[in-house]
Structure formats: structure tokens, C-alpha cells
Amino acid sequence: MNKITQVARIQREKSMESLLNIHPRHMRSVHLEGDFADTTSSLGFVLTPVAADALSRISSAFRSDSTQRAFRISGDYGSGKSAFGLALARISAGNTRALPKALHPFCQRIRVQPRLATGDHEPLGVTVLRALGCKVSRGTKPTTDEVLLKVKKSIGQARSNGYKGVLLVLDELGKNLEFAAQNPEFDDIFLLQRLAEEAARSGDQPLILVVMLHQGVAAYSAGLDSAARREWDKVAGRLEEILYTHPLEQFVTLVAATLSVNIKALPREVAADCTKAMLGAVRSGLYGSSAALELSRFGPAIFPFHPTVLPVLVRTIRKFGQNERSLFSFISASEPMGLQHHIQLIGSKLIPYRLYHLFDYVKQNLSPSINMGNSYLHWGYVDSLLASTPLDNIEEESVFKCIALLNLLDAPDLPATQEFLHLALDNGTNQRAISKAIREMKNRGVLYERGTVRGLCLWPHTSVNLDEEFKRGSVATQSGEDNIGLLCRQLPPEQIVPRGHYLRSGTLRYGEVQFVPATGLPQLLKDQPVLSGKGPDLNLRVILPANQAQFRESEKQLRAFHKSLSEGFYIAIAQPPTSSAAALTDLITWKWVQANTPALAGDRYAREEVARQVARAERRFRERLCGLDSLELPIAPPMTWFSLRSEVRLKSGRELLGFLSDQCGQIYSESPHVLNELINRRSPSSAAVAARTKLVEAMATAPSMPMLGMDNSKRPPEMALYLSILRKGGFHQEAEDGWKFHLPTEEQDHCRLLPALNHITDLLRESGTDALVPVLRVFDVRQCRGVHAAISNCALFESLIRYCTFRWNSSGHSRREGSSLSDVRGRYTRSVRDNLGCN
Bridge-partner residues for 242, per DSSP? Predict the structure, then answer.
């Protein structure tokens, strides 16, 4: 503006504040039911082209021959949908006194009675009944037929009151759809379909349905399975969509109406320069490529906003604030560095609100939003650079703040070019100072040129637009699979150790937890896992339902069939994990961005930010699982576990682990108790294998010697095996004629090896004398006795000793103990090596 600064130096009797008459429109959200009783609440409605087009389309539904009478209005938070619905209700009733003159032409001869309600997290039928004026008690679950009957009665009452029909306006329907997605048993989406169909067939007794949403219907059904999503999409198609989103040039009209600047009291020089600056902004494309030059006449109407501020402000509020409602709140709120604060500071001076003022506002008020978003690292870099970079004059500081804000937005249509900076900062006397500031800051390495398209930047590397990449990732990662199935695939099997059983028996057992969608429960019951001795000792499955209906159906199935579950198989049903499914979608999308954005290689800050977002999404996903992935910890909510013998509700952590320990004690009641981690394990270590081999050798060569001939002054691993199994188990004992192997009594069997040994002996005896028995068959003892591999090898050799003794004694032959045992050891070693491939 060429002369604003000169005019601002003149002390005036009138202050900036006296030039404005800020209209209360958009200063608070509209509530349909409450504001409909206030006859003045629609008088400030501004008819924009978007609103006029929406009214024209809906007005056609008033004709008796119309078949399109169901509409869904979609738009951002604060775009004015509720105010539009309120004005539409008054238009339908023909209440011209409560409407501005611009809306009078839309009032038709045919009047319909408006019925209004604001949605809530409740059944859709309850909201519709509230709109119709019916008393609804808490917890009511009206059926579709009951709701439709009330609608027909309402139409009849309206006709008796002089109306042709009913206009049913439902605001905030998204809350009802969220409830419907979580509780499909209420069949709300079917009710919405029936309402749309009844509206289309209402003929000369019109039922006009208008619902308002913040986003598309598909966004509310994202957590459902693919079949349900298709059903929702079909229902959404029954309602004609109206996008209620104002382009930037229409915001100029709304802001001008809100500010209500007294243009006649504005100094002529200021008004002229506002018009000129607005013309320059329109020509430069700041208000869109299709913006008409006539828009320049609004320059004085949006004062004290500089014309370059409004496009940046709208983008800033949308990205970091609360959409358009925050834009209008910005006009009236007394926030630090905001518009009202600016007006109070300048007093009687007429100084416009420029981009560097907006930067100070963002820094002061929107930092928390920025820190939680994708621009965190770039903002941190800007903030640190501002604190550490010496700026020689006010022009350099202004240039720096303008470029920082534009770089932060990273909008392709708002590049930080030199032309833009001159337009935003020019006050009629500082053109050369601005050019010099840009040139010197580039020479000092504060600014970097990134071409005529991208303009100036505060960092030398390319700037990746993470918001756009995230949108691309969201599209790329969409699949036909429902979110619950995706969640189950992403959760790896979890191993849970019942430590109480381990402390009592010395055997480390584990249960494997897997997650299964509720739709897969019938197949799971058909193909149940069984204990084989080679996998987990317990099989646990957690059913994840998509909604409460699936939860109840799964619970019903398990109560009917749990007595047919296999041994060691346990099933629980979790609450619908809707929040964790949504968090998983974010995690998958960020991982896609990390793997499929080549530009990250040249942008260290964006690369670090993506890594942060991946870690944050991973953490948020784990938090929203509420402990389902860590059942050993007391985090997850209680669940009912179904098994062959019982149905019991357990808390995670100690209570669940105690239950599983008891179950292991019952299932593996005849398994050995060997308190030696060296040998009592699934996969013996190399030291355990070597010790076991030496122990077997000693058993074969020195059975009559104390300690099998081992040096008692040393403590090798084989000595530990000997003491914990053979001595403690009562197999190697001292008799009158020396040390011998013999079968202990049940009282002497402290290691509880007799059940397994007796089982092996029975197998060998059944095979007869001199018969070869496959080792794998003998090792099947693990399936029914729960014996670990290392112990079963020692037990097998001991059984072969007993079988050899039995065979020689029964045949009446005399034997030499050493040679016969050596022969048995050889047969054992060769058999194990050939069948199992072990030493």
C-alpha cells in the first residue's frame, strides 16, 4: 500500500476500532433446535454462490413431481452448514421476516414444516424421533417400522396445520454414523436408506430429508468389513451429495460481511491503496486463477487485513487451527498477536495487519498444533533459526517471518517469491530496502533460492510436503480387506509364559496367543489346533470383533461349543478394537510414505520427521491396543476365556498367568520335574548336548562306580545332570554289592520320571525281543507326557538299559555288563542319529 504509512503518521480523532462493526455471525456454532426459536439468528446469513447453489438444488425438491428429496451436505468444520440448515428451515416454512432479503426469492408457495435435530452418539431412530417432537426415554431402541410410522403421522399433522409436508433436517449426523458403525445391530444404516426411499416416493405429500456431515459416509465406515462398507456406500448413493465448501474468493465476501467496515469513514488514500493492493493480489493469483478482477473492490471492505494476508490466513487456520470457524473467531477473539490485539496496539493509527503479524500470531498461539502435526521439525528449525540468526533491520525481520510462514505452509500456490514479498511488505517507501534485505540474506546463507516456481526458502534442501505424501499413502494403502482382518495380520503371535508352573516343575512351557477376526471363528472351531509336543504347550486365541453385534454372536457360539474344544485350547473375545484399527491405518500409511517417497533422500528434516511419525504411530497403535499385545502385563481389560473344562473371566497379568499355570499342571500332570535348566529345555545348548553325551557314556561304561566315575572335586555340566536326574530321581543308588541302576519306587521318584519311563518300556515290550523300534515313535512320549527333548533322550537310554536287562534275563543267558550296555549304547546312538539327526 503506497500511502498507508504516511496516513498512519497523522493523528486522527477516530481510531481503527471505530471503523469496524464486527458482526457476530460465525462467532459461535449454531445449534439447530436452540437457534430456531431465535427469530433473529438467520438475519446475518450471507448468501454466497455455494449457498445459493445448494438452496436451488434443494428447492427443486418442493415440487410435487420431484423424486430427489434426500440430500447430504458435506463440508469442513465451521463452513456454515448448520447456519445453512437453519436458514433452509425458515425458507421451507416461508418465514421471510426471519430471513435477510437475499433469501426471500427462495421462499416458495409450497410450504413444508421444518423438523430439526442435532445428531448425537445414539441410535438414528432416537434422533429422528426427537426431531419429530416425540418424547424418547433413555435407552429406547425404536425399530425402523416404528420410526417410519411416526414420520408418516408427522406428515399428516403438518398437512392439517397448513403445510404440504415435512422437511427433516439432521445436523451432525456423523455422530449417529459413528454409533451405527460400532453398533450395527441397531440397523441405523437401513433406517437411513428407508428414510431416503420414503422421501423419494413421497409424491404430493413431500418428505424432504437433509443431513449434514463433516466428511463422506465412507470415512465413518472405514472400520467395517468390506461387505458392510459396500452396503454403506450403496445407502450413501441414495442421498444426493452437496459439497458445502467455499472457495477463497467467497471467503472475501464472508469476511467483509463480518468486519462491516465503515468504508465511508475510511480515508480516501487508504481505501485507494487497499483497492490497488487487492488488485495486485488478484492478478498474482493469490485468490485463485479464476478470481474476477471485480474482487479488488473488496480491498477496503476487509481492512485492516492486508490483501495478501487472507489467503495465507485461511490456509494457516485449516492446517493448524480449527478450520473456518477459527478464521472468524480470529477476527473477534482477543488472542495475543491476533487482529483485535493489533487494533488495540495501534490505537488511532491505520496500520494494516500484515504477514509478519500473522507469523507472530502463529508462533504465539498455534505452536501446540504445529508440534503435534507433520510440520514439527520444520517449525523447530524456523524457531531456532529465528533465535540464532542476526537480522540487521526491520525489513530483514519482516522478510524472514514472511518466508518462514510460507515455507511452513508449503502450498504450491503460495510460493515465497520476491514478487510476493514485495506485494506483502510494500508500504510505498521500502521497495529498495526489501530488495536489499533479500539480497544480503541470500549472500549470508540465510535464504536459499529454489527457482522461480518454489521461490525462497530458509533451508537448502528440498521440502517434502508430508501432508500430500500422507494423502497419497492413504490412497495407496487402501485395500479390500476389512480393518479387523488387517489388524490381526499385523499383530504377531505372542508367547506367554506361565511362570508359576515353571517354578514348580522346572519345565519352561509357553502358550502362543494369536488374534483371529470374529468372522473367522466358525473356521477356527472347525480346524482346532492340537498339542503335538513340538509347538506351543498351550494354544490361546483372542477373537477381535468389529462391533458389539459380532461380540455377542461370538460369545453365543463359544458358550454353545466350548465343551468340544481340544485339550489345551483357550479362546477369549476382546471388545471391538475400533480405535486401534484406525491407529494401525495411520501406522501403515506412514511406513508407506517412508518407503515410497524418493524426495526424502534430499530432505533430512522431512526424513527425520517421517521417522518420528512412524515411531509416534507405532506408539499410539500400541497404546490403543490397551494391552492386547501384552497379556502377561496387567493392562488389558478382563476377558472371558473358554476352554474344554471351563468358562472363566480373568484379568490379564497375574490372574491369567496363574490360571494358565494351573492348566499346565493338569494337562502335564505326568511330566517330569527336573529343576535343571541345562537339560530341561526345548532346544539344548551345545554345552548341554556335550554334557548329555558324556553322561550317557559314563552310564554305559561305569554304572557300578560312585558318581559314574566322575571326579567329585569338580563340577562339570555332566555332574549337574547326574545329580539332578539320576541321583535325585533315585535311578542310581548304592546297594550291598555296589552302585547300580534300578527302578525307583514312587516315593523315591522325586523327578517324576516313572510315568514317561513306563510308557517307553511298554512300547519296547510290545515290539518283542530283538525288534527295532523307531526312535520317533518312542519320542511320541512328549505328546502325552510333555517331556522335553533333552530329558527324553536320557530317559530313552535308561529305558533301553532296562529293556536290555529284561531281554537278557528272560532268555537265560549270562551277560557281561559292559559289552551288553556298550552294544545298547551303540544301537541307541545310531538310531537317534539316523532318525533325528542329533548327536
Answer: 73
Using CA of residue 175, residue 178, residue 182, residue 184, what is the dihedral sign? positive
CA neighbor of 355 nearest in space, from 396, 325, 313: 313
Who contacts 81 (Cβ-Cβ below 8 Å, separation ≥6)? 73, 75, 171, 212, 244
CA atoms of 44 and 197, how far apart (whole Å): 35
SS3 state at 118? strand
pLDDT digits 0-9 by tens, 13-29 = 456 667 777 765 555 67
Separation of alpha carbons 795 and 754, rounded Å: 9
Cell 518466508, residue located: 403
Q: What's the rounded Cα separation, in Å, for the pair 379 and 356?
A: 15
Torsion of CA 296, 301, 306, 311, to 10 degrees: -70
State the DSSP code for 186.
G
Please state the pTM of the whole predicted model: 0.63
What's residue 83's pLDDT?
87
On the question of pLDDT at 814 being above 50, the answer is: no
Choice between 573 and 757, residue whose per-residue pLDDT is larger = 573
Rounded CA-CA distance 820/818 in Å is 6
Rounded CA-CA distance 510/531 in Å is 12
Are the beta carbons of 839 and 833 closer than 8 angstroms? yes
- pLDDT for 679 equals 66
Q: Other CB atoms closer than 10 Å to residue 332's CB: what's the count?
A: 18
Residue 685 near residue 766 (C-beta atoms within 8 A)? no
> Residue 510 corresponds to which cell in the numbers above?
509357553
Identify the bridge partners of residue 538 per DSSP, sorted by sequence position.
Answer: 511
149 Cα distance to chain centroid = 39
Tell which residue, 119, 118, 94, has the closest CA to residue 107: 94
**Is the Cα dihedral 438, 439, 440, 442 positive or negative?**
positive
Q: What is the pLDDT of residue 781?
A: 52
Q: Among candidates 51, 27, 84, which has minimal Cα distance to 213?
A: 84
Rounded CA separation 364/9 (Å): 28
Report how far residue 466's alpha carbon sits from residue 374's, in angstroms, rounded to the nearest whole number.
Answer: 6
* Closest residue by Cα to residue 48 from 83, 1, 3, 11: 83
Q: Which residue is associated with the grid cell 495486485?
A: 280
Question: What DSSP assignment string belongs to 580-612?
Answer: HHHHHHHHHHHHHHHHH-GGGGG-HHHHHHHHH
Q: What are the beta bridge partners of residue 494?
A: 513
Q: What is the DSSP letter of 80?
A: S
Terminus-to-terminus CA distance in the chain, angstroms? 91
* Among 789, 773, 778, 787, residue whose Cα is nearest residue 827: 773
765 near 745, Cβ under 8 Å? no
CA distance 252 to 340: 19
Within 8 A by CB and 6+ apart from 549, the residues are 183, 184, 185
Nearest to 506 by CA among 663, 632, 386, 679: 679
Helices within 512-603 (DSSP H only)? 521-526, 548-561, 578-596
**Count of CA atoms in the C-beta half-sphere (13 A) of 264:** 0
Q: How far apart are CA 114 and CA 43, in angstroms?
A: 18
CB 35 within 8 A of CB 41: yes
Cβ(334)–Cβ(341) below 8 Å: yes
Would you state the pLDDT for residue 373? 62
Positive or negative: CA dihedral 150, 155, 158, 159: negative
Q: What would the grid cell of residue 132 be?
A: 419429530
CB atoms within 10 A of CB 827: 13
Q: Tell me whether strands 448-449 and 456-457 are parallel, antiparallel or unpaired.
A: antiparallel
The lowest-confidence range among 242-251, 541-550, 567-576, 824-833 is 824-833
Cβ atoms 514, 540 nearer than 8 A:
yes
Q: Shortest CA distance to 584 belongs to which of 620, 551, 548?
A: 620
